[in-house]
Write a structure and sequence with these properties.
Among the domains are: about 140 residues, no CATH class; about 190 residues, Jelly Rolls (Sandwich), CATH 2.60.120. Helices cover about 10% and strands about 30% of the residues. It has 8 helices and 44 strands.
């Protein structure tokens, strides 16, 4: 299948001095060593993880375009994009953020700079098509920010050159001396304040991209990409937004958030979608830069502005690991509209901190989870509606912890991202639940804060007869093909053998070729069957549970929740004991009509473990394919399909 390519977005840690603890939301992160509080590691200090942000005195944030490559290089052919055209396109991308009525973020291109080298920390916010020889991403947006509270004084240098970067003669960030760099007003600044942001776009012949600037120029060439789709994402980082996990809005909308970290450069519809702000992007830009939050200055209401509190309310709560009994750092929490089924916004749980070595500038885990993870709190900005609140791990599918920030990496280090996704279940919430797929309504009005939406992840037993995903398959899938995975009865009986069980859900790892496409399947089911040698008989006519029109995961696991898990567990146990069930099967069927949706017209794929010289798990022989409507099932001895059954001891 075609790959989706990553956009690397960095927040530089080579800052100066720098901030306050804050629960993770959609923020790019740095750290705060204000006060130099000793950490558990001798000679080091506690570094509180915080978000980065522009000070309101720097509104509008002023950017300059590097004009030394004109026209813009095109690694695929003759250059065609001028600096002037690229500037117009990039200002349009800035304007998408600037025009959010509930946010006072304001970013403007104010001129050019003739920099023959690559970007650097120089108090110039540079937009450049020059990148270093070792740069391999499509683009990145590195920022330099403070790592402690500081008071800047008149004439002070910040970036290390001989030119003063602070002036007491100004009240807003300005190029006082006309030399092209920005001076800051003298005064107090919080840790996390952004001092310099640059955005670099890769156009190198070796690994760069052709950047186009019109919708008509979007194509399926994977090394050609829409400039707006990339710029609008990077500019979200420019004012402090982090990557999110939102790449599939709903069962009818395969789009996602602009701040999702991967873009499918071979899917024009995906490029167009990523170049359009999502509700998630708009909500976080508004939360961090809220209109109506000040009596004067950029945060004060002006013509065309809409107060944040007149549109948004907040959902607040915490996430606790149901097995480890620890607050989780970096769990991804989502608010889903109960009426439309669309994900509205996502955020991350946890207030976290690390240990900082002042002598080397290094950051360290302390090994003390109680120190490194202060709490599992989260916040979600939402509009007036009824919401389901869901949680999922940052486990590499669809996004790894390293693509988000310190908070997710801290949770990953302590092994916290090993739970199954689930919903908040009101007073039924707990490590052991009657129905993990049940959700309780959270109603929020504008200006209202709904608190106490505290999630405890389930203490599941997951029967997963596979290792790490090595491939996805298969190519040239025909319509209606079935995939099945055997779950031997002995594995069911081994779970809580002296008590009852609940059979909560089935999990299917799925992928789409075109990122704009919903990972839709004809049906998913749990059913019975048997195996004789290398052949299987699977009962498709009378499944135990099934869902037609099943929506899988977009490079993730999609869950089929069962309606009555406790009753199902008792019945399966009883039928196994009577000999009526010898094996269970998890079954997934491809769509039955063609052409398949998307520019590639490809069927969705399933995750595969195997096909490598040395596999990380045994090849169990439990995976089967049927291409004739379930009459004949062919064993796939070289692969384990990534289908799992999720159980719990009965509550």
């Amino acid at each position: 299948m075609r790959k989706a390519f990553a956009m690397t977005c960095l927040a530089a840690l080579t800052a100066l001095t720098g901030a306050v603890p804050a629960m993770a939301g959609g923020a790019l992160e740095t750290f705060d060593i204000t006060g130099a509080t000793p950490s558990p590691i001798a000679g080091q200090v506690t570094a509180k993880v915080i978000g980065i942000r522009w000070d309101s005195r720097c509104m509008p944030v002023q950017f300059v375009v590097n004009n030394t490559l004109n026209p813009i290089p095109n690694p695929l052919g003759a250059p065609f994009l001028t600096v002037a055209a690229a500037t117009t396109a990039m200002q349009g991308s800035f304007n998408a953020w600037n025009q959010i009525p509930t946010s006072f973020i304001n970013m403007q291109i104010t001129g050019t700079v003739a920099n023959p080298g690559v970007r650097g920390f120089d108090m110039k916010n540079e937009l450049t098509f020059r990148t270093a020889a070792g740069f391999t991403a499509i683009a990145s947006s590195p920022s330099t920010s403070l790592i402690s509270d500081v008071t800047f004084v008149n004439g002070q240098g910040i970036d290390g050159d001989a030119d003063p970067d602070v002036s007491s003669a100004i009240t807003v960030c300005t190029d006082v001396d006309g030399d092209g760099d920005i001076e800051f007003p003298a005064g107090f600044y919080k840790a996390g304040t952004i001092l310099d942001n640059d955005v670099q776009f890769n156009t190198k012949t070796t690994n760069g991209y052709r950047f186009t600037d019109t919708p008509a120029a979007m194509d399926t060439t994977t090394r050609s990409v829409d400039l707006n789709a990339i710029a609008i994402h990077e500019f979200g980082h420019s004012f402090g937004l982090a990557h999110v996990l939102l790449n599939n809005k709903s069962a009818s909308n395969g789009g996602g958030a602009t701040m999702f970290p991967f873009i499918d450069t071979g899917d024009p519809a995906a490029e167009a979608d990523q170049g359009t702000l999502d509700t998630d992007d708009i909500a976080w830009a508004s939360y961090f830069y809220p209109e109506g939050s000040a009596a004067s200055g950029p945060g004060a209401l002006q013509a065309g502005d809409v107060a944040f509190n007149s549109v948004y309310g907040l959902i607040r709560g915490s996430v606790t690991h149901g097995v480890l009994n620890q607050p989780i750092a970096g769990a991804s929490v989502s608010a889903i509209d109960r009426n439309t089924g669309e994900v509205f916004t996502t955020g991350y749980s946890g207030t976290a901190q690390l240990s900082y070595n002042p002598a080397t500038g290094g950051l360290f885990f302390t090994g003390n989870v109680a120190h490194d993870i202060v709490n599992g709190n989260y916040v979600l900005p939402v509009t007036k509606a009824n919401w389901d609140v869901a949680v999922e791990p940052v486990d590499g599918q669809p996004v790894p912890v390293t693509s988000v920030g310190f908070t997710t990496q801290i949770g990953g280090f302590y092994g916290q991202h090993n739970f199954n996704e689930e919903y908040w279940n009101g007073n039924q919430e707990g490590a052991i639940e009657k129905r993990a797929g049940e959700s309780k309504n959270v109603h929020v009005n504008e200006g209202e804060i709904q608190t106490g939406i505290n999630i405890i992840t389930n203490a599941d037993v997951t029967i997963a007869n596979f290792g790490a995903r090595d491939f996805v398959g298969f190519t040239a899938n025909p319509a209606g093909r079935y995939f099945a995975v055997r779950i031997p009865a002995s594995q069911i009986q081994a779970v809580n053998p002296t008590g009852d069980i609940t059979i909560q859900a089935a999990a299917f790892n799925t992928v789409v070729t075109d990122n704009s496409v919903v990972p839709a399947f004809a049906r998913a089911m749990l059913t019975t069957g048997s195996v004789s040698g290398t052949t299987a008989t699977v009962n498709l006519a009378n499944p135990i549970e099934q869902e037609t029109g099943f929506i899988g995961g977009d490079n993730d696991f999609g869950l089929l929740y069962f309606k009555n898990p406790h009753t199902l567990g008792k019945k399966v146990r009883k039928d196994i004991e009577k000999g009526d069930i010898t094996d269970l099967f998890l079954v997934l069927q491809l769509p039955t009509t063609t052409p398949f949706p998307g520019v590639s017209n490809a069927a969705p794929f399933i995750g595969l473990d195997g096909g490598v010289a040395v596999n990380d798990a045994p090849l169990f022989g439990y995976s089967f394919i049927s291409s004739d409507g379930g009459v004949t099932w062919v064993q796939q001895p070289s692969f384990n399909f990534l289908f799992a059954l999720i159980l719990q001891p009965a509550s």
